[in-house]
């Protein structure tokens, strides 16, 4: 048993093989810290989605262990229910997650299934809808919602159950820039609440700005994990995962080579930070 209270989830030699023999996860060792902002990155087919389904208990590891709050996950009905109360997953395609007739029914479904009294559940549903700015379409059928609205409802599905960890698979996929920024803002608020947030993304600029740590997957194994500053300077591992350096880092390095900025400056994470360096030189 893991005695470190700072670790919310631990993976020990975690493996998963599909029924057709495909080895999707090939022995992952990883510790996830409480309250961490963790970006999981890699090329399509690297195992990200399978990993997420395993962290949520949808997939049972073929080998290895998954520990939550220091205890091995029990794959009984009760054990999985206990895990999913605290570890929620928001799928890349919200249509695979939403099924109720209306928004309010959709968000109420999970918390009522947990046995929360109806009056208390209704109050919590209202609070979450207000927090995510979806009260205006509370009675709207979920299949009539826009992509950004569906994504917010999918997050509300999980948030209403007061989770300790939220997993988001490509949260900005297929969204226009306005709704992508809106979802980014919601994710930032989740982190501010102290919720452990894990997301997969191909957006290196977002990961550099947001993540405490980046984990790179290739063919079902972890090939690198470190702070974004370190990971995004390693061109070889970025190439292996079909990723590029963040634009702000490329520009910073160009300005350093040109003698415009000092290469000993702390790596900027945003364009605003880089602009400040330029204005202060």
From TrEMBL:
<dbReference type="InterPro" id="IPR003439">
    <property type="entry name" value="ABC_transporter-like_ATP-bd"/>
</dbReference>
<keyword id="KW-1278">Translocase</keyword>
<dbReference type="GO" id="GO:0043190">
    <property type="term" value="C:ATP-binding cassette (ABC) transporter complex"/>
</dbReference>
<dbReference type="InterPro" id="IPR017871">
    <property type="entry name" value="ABC_transporter-like_CS"/>
</dbReference>
<dbReference type="InterPro" id="IPR015856">
    <property type="entry name" value="ABC_transpr_CbiO/EcfA_su"/>
</dbReference>
<comment type="function">
    <text>Part of an ABC transporter complex. Responsible for energy coupling to the transport system.</text>
</comment>
<dbReference type="GO" id="GO:0005524">
    <property type="term" value="F:ATP binding"/>
</dbReference>
<comment type="similarity">
    <text>Belongs to the ABC transporter superfamily.</text>
</comment>
<dbReference type="GO" id="GO:0006824">
    <property type="term" value="P:cobalt ion transport"/>
</dbReference>
<protein>
    <recommendedName>
        <fullName>ABC transporter ATP-binding protein</fullName>
    </recommendedName>
</protein>
<dbReference type="GO" id="GO:0016887">
    <property type="term" value="F:ATP hydrolysis activity"/>
</dbReference>
<feature type="domain" description="ABC transporter">
    <location>
        <begin position="9"/>
        <end position="244"/>
    </location>
</feature>
<keyword id="KW-0813">Transport</keyword>
<keyword id="KW-0472">Membrane</keyword>
<dbReference type="InterPro" id="IPR027417">
    <property type="entry name" value="P-loop_NTPase"/>
</dbReference>
<dbReference type="InterPro" id="IPR050095">
    <property type="entry name" value="ECF_ABC_transporter_ATP-bd"/>
</dbReference>
<keyword id="KW-0067">ATP-binding</keyword>
<dbReference type="InterPro" id="IPR003593">
    <property type="entry name" value="AAA+_ATPase"/>
</dbReference>
<keyword id="KW-1003">Cell membrane</keyword>
<dbReference type="InterPro" id="IPR005876">
    <property type="entry name" value="Co_trans_ATP-bd"/>
</dbReference>
<dbReference type="GO" id="GO:0042626">
    <property type="term" value="F:ATPase-coupled transmembrane transporter activity"/>
</dbReference>
<comment type="function">
    <text>Probably part of an ABC transporter complex. Responsible for energy coupling to the transport system.</text>
</comment>
<keyword id="KW-0547">Nucleotide-binding</keyword>
<dbReference type="Pfam" id="PF00005">
    <property type="entry name" value="ABC_tran"/>
</dbReference>
């Amino acid at each position: 048993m893991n005695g470190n209270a700072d670790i919310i989830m631990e993976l020990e030699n975690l493996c998963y093989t599909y029924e057709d023999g495909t080895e999707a996860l090939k022995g992952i060792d990883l510790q996830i810290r409480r309250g961490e902002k963790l970006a999981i990155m890699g090329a399509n087919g690297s195992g990200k989605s399978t990993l997420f389904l395993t962290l949520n208990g949808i997939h049972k590891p073929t080998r290895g262990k998954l520990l939550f709050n220091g205890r091995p996950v029990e794959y009984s009905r009760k054990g999985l229910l206990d895990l999913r109360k605290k570890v929620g997953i928001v799928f890349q395609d919200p249509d695979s997650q939403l099924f109720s007739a209306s928004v309010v029914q959709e968000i109420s479904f999970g918390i009522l299934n947990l046995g929360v009294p109806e009056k208390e559940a209704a109050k919590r549903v209202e609070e979450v809808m207000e927090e995510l700015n979806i009260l205006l379409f509370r009675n709207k059928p979920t299949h009539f919602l826009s992509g950004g609205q569906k994504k917010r409802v999918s997050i509300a599905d999980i948030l209403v159950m007061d989770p300790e960890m939220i997993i988001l698979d490509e949260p900005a996929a297929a969204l226009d820039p306005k709704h992508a920024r809106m979802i980014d803002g919601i994710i930032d608020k989740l982190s501010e609440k102290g919720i452990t947030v894990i997301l997969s993304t191909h957006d290196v600029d977002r990961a550099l700005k947001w993540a405490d740590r980046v984990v790179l997957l290739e063919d079902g194994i972890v090939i690198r994990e470190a702070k974004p500053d370190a990971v995004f300077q390693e061109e070889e591992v970025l190439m292996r995962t079909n990723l590029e350096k963040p634009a702000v880092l490329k520009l910073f390095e160009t300005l350093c080579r040109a003698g415009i900025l000092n290469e000993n400056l702390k790596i900027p994470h945003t364009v605003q930070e880089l602009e400040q360096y330029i204005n202060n030189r």
